[in-house]
Amino acid sequence: NAGVTQTPKFQVLKTGQSMTLQCAQDMNHEYMSWYRQDPGMGLRLIHYSVGAGITDQGEVPNGYNVSRSTTEDFPLRLLSAAPSQTSVYFCASTPDQGLGEKLFFGSGTQLSVL
Amino acid sequence: DQQVKQNSPSLSVQEGRISILNCDYTNSMFDYFLWYKKYPAEGPTFLISISSIKDKNEDGRFTVFLNKSAKHLSLHIVPSQPGDSAVYFCAASSGGSNYKLTFGKGTLLTVNP
After folding, report:
1. How many CA atoms lie within 13 A of B62 on its CB side?
2. Residue A99 pLDDT class (50, 70, 90 cuts)
3. How far apart are CA B24 and CA B96, in angstroms?
């Protein structure tokens, strides 16, 4: 039972480089989200998707791009990496909206931008 | 402006005693509250939740209390065990949008044997 799978687990980038953080879920969940966790800041929502082909911005979307071509995959793209994007990134999914539903998280990608 | 606040960065308790983690919120539109537990190098895992129509929800050793008038919730762990040592995040959502959670900064709980 894989759940939410994130790759890579660790990544080091130079300022200005671009990369894609991968996220896949095998639970047929409609809703997917990306969060970043910084020391002393908790988790903050970057982008989310309510279904294939539909995405929207969260609290801290600048510098990131997302797309949702399939139900299973929700990649996060860093267009031009900056040191301020050094963080731990978590992808999450949930089957439906409504009371009683909860987010299932992946194990995270630790990103360092030098 | 932080909408979900966990004012205690850390808490240390003895094994077998009660752990009480607190959370305050400012957004009156929040109607669903969740607690997540996080171990180092792992993703957060769901622990327990409560709807705004209730004031208490219990699951084994874990109980969450909600005081809507005070915009305050708390997580009680009884009895505390060393395996409970982790960071605990309080989170909230509104209108059934549980894919858009607002998190607090977390509280590091250490349970000493």
Report:
1. 14
2. low
3. 20
